[in-house]
Write a structure and sequence with these properties.
single chain; 18 helices; Rossmann fold; 3 domains; aminoacyl-trna synthetase; zinc ion binding; ligase; Glutamate--tRNA ligase; three-stranded antiparallel sheet; Glutamyl-tRNA Synthetase, domain 2; three-stranded parallel sheet; Arc Repressor Mutant, subunit A; ATP-binding
């Protein structure tokens, strides 16, 4: 990377032995899905290199930063399994350090006091717009004598940026990116009220935290050029840069809430496993051959920056569901049960379901889980598939189930119920034998008995295996639901 009017080289800090990355969210909202992927890439790269990922909360926007957002960001990272190293750094608390660095730059003649008024700055913007130019500060206070300073006016402090030549970013993802220095004006380092700007604070904090690799969204690429000029003015080594592609919706448009630009907590409430969401996110912009499903250890061992493409990734809920379903089916039942227990308070209707399960239904759910997980793509669907256990009598029937329960089918169910009463053992196997024998005696196919039986017991046309349902409900509840049909 270089920043100069004569292309002088800036030594990279990536020569450091330990790789240090950072995730630096602004706590003005929840951890959104793009931020989660950025955190994941930083975490994976640090783990792959035996380094550390640090967390910095960029809370300098005091009007919009909230404790709730900070808690939500940390909770989201925790849920995703992206544990940061060391204590979090809060940017606002470092303001004195930021100001001290600017004083050093002033003393070295690499920054200057600017007394331009808001009205003058607005006039510059208007004139640039009228002339079809990008708005740029015109440098009017760059070389003026301090004695010309207006009395009583607090100055902003600006970087004395190079005006000729170019700033070059050698980016691990975007490649060789050149910015003419004429397009990068003397940016503000300290506002007139003494508060540091984002551009300055990021550079000072990354330097002080020992960050070796800055991995962030490509929308920060211009920021990289400006920040490199600050590094050059301070004679500090520049971290390696990797600006990752943005995430778009499946239609190629900028990701919005309708596409999936939601907080991570929304994905937990939709019933996605954190392991599956990690797997899905790592494939948004990064690849390792044709492999789609990765364990965490595989992600770490395979992750390299050169596997990240330049093109925008496309978010696709159908693919996320598919990945989540694969994880659920392949998980050990005990592990899936543990994930379900942790997720239950966050799922729609989960609190009520948890109370009912705690009342004695967990063993029943555990018996049904192997069958239930084969059809479910999310934990919400898993919960929905067992709702028949909780439904109070008399059941209400969905449209398809209602269509199955014709007068003839209801009469058949009454007769079947009378046969099931006498069963000495109400297990799935014994019930199946009796239902099959009943269908044979009646001269009908098994489905002609099993389908209305499913509708009568669950209120739906689709359910877990019907004989497992009978065992789960037990003799009394099963017979009572059949009796309700003709009550």
């Amino acid at each position: 990377m270089c920043v100069s009017s004569r292309k002088s080289e800036v030594v990279s800090s990536s020569m450091s032995e330990t790789v240090v990355t950072r995730f630096a969210p602004s706590p003005t909202g929840f951890l959104h899905i793009g931020g989660a992927r950025t955190a994941l890439f930083n975490w994976l790269f640090a783990k792959a290199k035996g380094g550390k990922m640090l967390l910095r909360i960029e809370d300098t926007d005091r009007a919009r930063s909230t404790e709730e957002a900070i808690a939500a960001i940390m909770d989201g990272l925790d849920w995703l399994g992206l544990k940061w190293d060391d204590e979090p750094v809060f940017q606002f608390s470092r303001a004195e350090r930021h100001r001290a660095v600017v004083e050093e730059m002033l003393s070295a003649g690499r920054a200057y006091r600017c007394y331009a008024t808001p009205e003058e700055l607005d006039q510059m913007r208007q004139q640039a717009q009228a002339e079809g130019r990008p708005p740029r500060y015109d440098g009017r206070w760059r070389d003026r004598d301090p004695s010309e300073a207006p009395a009583g006016r607090a100055p902003a402090i600006r970087l004395k940026a190079p005006r000729e030549g170019e700033t070059t970013v050698e980016d691990a993802v975007q490649g060789h990116v050149v910015f003419p220095n004429a397009d990068l004006d003397d940016l503000v380092l300290l506002r007139s009220d003494g508060t540091p700007t984002y551009m300055l604070a990021v550079v000072v904090d990354d330097h002080d935290m020992g960050v070796t690799h800055v991995i962030r969204g490509v929308d920060h690429l211009t920021n990289a050029a400006r920040q490199m000029q600050i590094y050059a003015a301070l004679d500090w080594p520049v971290p390696e840069m990797a600006h990752i592609p943005l995430i778009h919706g499946p239609d190629g448009a900028k990701l919005s809430k309708r596409h999936g630009a939601l907080g991570v907590e929304a994905y937990r409430a939709m019933g996605y496993l954190p392991q599956a969401l990690r797997n899905y996110l790592v494939r948004l912009g990064w690849s390792a051959g044709d492999k789609e499903i990765f364990s965490t250890d595989e992600m770490i061992s395979l992750f390299e920056l050169d596997g990240i493409g330049k093109s925008a990734a496309r978010f696709d809920f159908a693919k996320l569901e598919n990945v989540n379903g694969q994880y659920m089916r392949s998980m050990d039942n005990a592990d899936l049960l543990a994930e379900f227990r942790k997720a239950l308070p966050y799922l729609p209707g989960g609190a009520d379901a948890e109370a009912r399960l705690d009342a004695g239904l967990w063993p029943v759910f555990e018996r049904l889980l192997p069958a239930l997980k084969e059809r479910a793509k999310t934990l919400v669907e898993l919960l929905e598939s067992m709702e028949f256990l909780f439904t109070p009598r008399p059941l209400s029937f969905d449209e398809k189930a209602s269509g199955m329960l014709t007068p003839e089918a209801r009469a058949l169910m009454a007769e079947l119920g009378a046969n099931l009463v006498a069963l000495p053992n109400f297990s799935a196997a014994s019930v199946e034998r009796e239902v099959r024998a009943f269908a044979e005696r009646k001269g009908v196919k098994l489905g002609q008995v099993a389908q209305p039986l499913r509708a009568a017991l669950t209120g739906r046309a689709v359910s877990p295996p019907i004989f497992d349902v009978l065992e789960a409900l037990g003799r009394d509840e099963s017979l009572a639901r059949l009796a309700d049909l003709n009550a």
